């Protein structure tokens, strides 16, 4: 699979790349990555062979997933095409590398199914903590996949916990749901 056909790349396959991208602790200044454009396990190994229009579409998707405001996007858009190709290559390479990370492979749908399954208090708290980390660290596209259905699950669990009048009520889970809601709203 040498050439990449645009109709096969958008939106499903690109979504797979970007939904698995992991956030770095600190963004590093731009440096050419000597092998990133030729990463052999990546179907986009021929990124240099793609036309400029396709690279620009990938670049725009990258900017969108980075959740940058217009002010921060403007200088990046002003870069020349070679730098944009390298940035897209690094971004997709990082996305591919993220597939090996346990947290990043957990999809939004997996969280939704887990929340719907009626977890015990300890398991619910662990799930909510992990979900909060994912909501904070995954790209906007991942948060959008979690979307209304995930939000509905969180609100239903919060409602159920609020209705529980017993003294052993789990306030830690309530607090963690609020933190998840905050992370969701900050990234959506």
UniProtKB/TrEMBL annotation:
SUPFAM superfamilies: ARM repeat. GO terms for cellular component: actin filament. Gene3D superfamilies: Formin, diaphanous GTPase-binding domain, Leucine-rich Repeat Variant. One of its GO terms (molecular function) is actin binding. One of its GO terms (biological process) is actin filament polymerization. Residues 47-188 form the GBD/FH3 domain. This is GBD/FH3 domain-containing protein. It comes from Aquarana catesbeiana (American bullfrog).
